[in-house]
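Two proteins, back to back. First:
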Amino acid sequence: MSTTADRITITQAGQYLICAQVQYASNALGIREAFMRINGSTIFMDTYATTSPTDITSVVMSTIKTFAVNDYIEIRAFQSS
């Protein structure tokens, strides 16, 4: 695998365990969403988190997926508040 600031590129085809953790600032408003996508478009893992006015919200995602050479993975996070 090779990495840049915004993606991981697969250099050898096969199955991979992909794990990510995203933390959001405390805020009682809005939604929090984190997702993994392949090759800039196809979302293959998506999760939403509940809000907390006083605590940091943390989301942990993991999955096993088969990738081809030059596929790339991106982890994206969104908070609407």
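And the second protein:
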Amino acid sequence: MQDRDLRTSLEAVGALQPAYEYSGELVDGRRRRPICAELGIRLDVRVCETLQEACSTLWALQHQTRAVELAKREGFTGVLELAQLCGTTPSAVAQLLKAAQPKKSHKRKIKEETSQLRASPRMLRRLVTLEPELYALAKAAAHELGHDSFPRLVRDALWKEVRDNVPGAPTHQPRRVQSPNGARRKAG
């Protein structure tokens, strides 16, 4: 309900439900209180003495998310604790928590998994840092064989090994349309 709808409703019938306060803070009625004060309408405020009373009241008033947030703010994070404080079942709290989590798309999951590799401009170098001697020899071999780059030499050698030793592997290296890090322009 928007503020102008709430204002119209309060003008028409008054404040039917009381506001609820816990530990000096309004936990329900935050929008109604200033509008009622402005219109001169009396708003009853009931004080919840315990956290359990405040959370279970919010849950009963269909403010489940606010009830769980209040309990979490007070340091309760377990599903069983939250359910006990809110006066409901653990499955209802678990369902609420699951619905509140942001949904991950398949693309976002892949992006998160590869973010560490993308952060490094030299992904392949990380694979051979344990053997610097092999890295130096492979760079020299790439230069001797006329390869433009060390990664290309390693990729070609791996494809040769796959083609020769893996049954059912393609007989030729597939053409790469775009690198995994995006299109690269050749300097020239």
